[in-house]
Each structure stands twice: as structure tokens, then as C-alpha cells.
Amino acid sequence: MVGLYAKFHPLIYRLAQYIPGSGASARGFLMNLVRARMQKRSKERTEKPKVSDAEQRGTDKPQDFVDKISEASEKNPQNVTPYHVFMMGFGNVVAGSDTTGTSLSAVLFYLTSSPRCLQALRAEIENCQDDSGNKPPTFEHLQKLPYLQAVIKESLCMHPATGLQMWRTVPKGGAEIQGVFFPENSVVGLNSWTAHYDEKVFDKPHEFRPERWLPNRRKTEGNGIILYPIGMGSRTCIGRHISTLEMIKLIPQMEFDFELQETSSSMRARNHWFVKPDNLKMRVRLRSHT
Fold first, then answer.
1. Which domains does the chain possess?
2. Beta bridge partners of 58
3. In terms of pTM, does the model score above 0.85?
């Protein structure tokens, strides 16, 4: 219930840090780490000559995230306050860690539980080789693999990382949703687990079937298939592209280099806003490519 009442979060976090296993102590450690790093960088920027960031790092070197938000604060201190700088830095460290980790766990579990799907994915990966001969292929090539994309989507569909509704406020004038009128300022939400396991939308939603997401299959199954793991619209997860990049890179690498074998036939999970697996164990050994 804590996740439903955000106004109580400051009090809950202060109390939870004294409860072993609550996770609050780890959050405090990360906040202190980020604060120390940000203060160190701020001091370094203050002591350096007032030249542009591009001149300091050289035009051929990329600008890191801390410099980006520090520069934004220096240019517009009223709108980008020290609080904003800290929270953006903290968000850059923690955002996507639980969601991506949970999603990757789901992908590996469903693949090891579905030998047919695992074999199809490995065949696609091994047949994809870029011009430089890299194996596994580069991200540029991997993101074009249809079955890999289908495996990721099906895993996100069967095990969304978030377990509570994505709340939205009804705009001025109200809105009609599924024949029901909601006045303005009403709070409405849709649970992704409810949406993804709707048999009116998905055929046999409890079966791991990546093929349903392939372009040719989507035409035959209709356009009613939705994917709602981390929200939709203008308030969806802003880090979704990085999360997708990480999965597209890591999954082929894992399946190319290792043999994964599940040690349990089911994956138990707990919903603490994030639906985290708590009994996922696997045997891992190197694959031979000779």
C-alpha cells in the first residue's frame, strides 16, 4: 500500500532505514554516494578557469551526465536548483536498475523454460554477423533481429516489471473511458498485468509465444495487441530506450557465450511496486564455439 500514497514516502523512508532488509539503507548509501560525487565535481568546476565545457574536455570527447546537469544549473540557477541537480544525478544512478534487472530475469527464465524459443533465438543470433565479423553482432545489427525483439516483447508482456497502476489525472472537461465518464481531476490507472493477461486481447496469454509479436503474425492476430510494461504516452518511462538497448546487447551475449539451465520449474515473484523474482536460480557454463 505504501506505493499508493506517495505523500508518506519521506516518513516511511526515515523509519525504514532502521528495519533490516527494508532496502532503505541501500537507498541511503546510494544517495550519499551521489551527493559526494556531485559535490566533488562541483568543487572541480569552481576551481577551473571559466571556459566552456567543450573547451575543457576537447571537442572530440563526449560530455558526461554530471557536466550536462551542472552546466544547465550554472546557466539557469533559478529553474535548475542544487536539489534538481542532485535528484537528476540520483535518478541517473538508480533509474532502470530494478526494471531492467527484473525484465532480464524474466527473459532468461522464459527462454530456458522454452527450448524451442531458445533454439530459434540462438539460430537468429548466430546467423547474424556484421561486416567486421563480430560475434555476437553489434547493436546496430541486433536491433534489426525480429525474433530477438519478439522475445523481449513477449517477456515484458508476461512479466511486466511494475505491479501497480500507472496513475493519470483526467484533464479539464473530463474523459469517457470504455463508456464510463470520469470528471476532470479524477485519478485513473491501468495495471499492466491485468492488461497483458486479458484473453480478449491476447490468445493464450499464459503461454510464452514470442511469435505473436512478429510482423507477419501481428497482421493475422489483429491490431488489438498492446504492450504496457512501463506506461504509455507522454509520461512513460524516459529511460525506456536505454533499458531496451541494454537488453538487446546483453541477451544475445549471454545466449551466445553461456549455457543456462533453470533449476526450478516456476519463478516466484514478490510485488513491492516492482515485481521482483525471488527464487530464480540457474546453472551457468561456458559454451564451446569450436
1. 2-94 (no CATH), 115-286 (1.10.630.10)
2. none
3. no
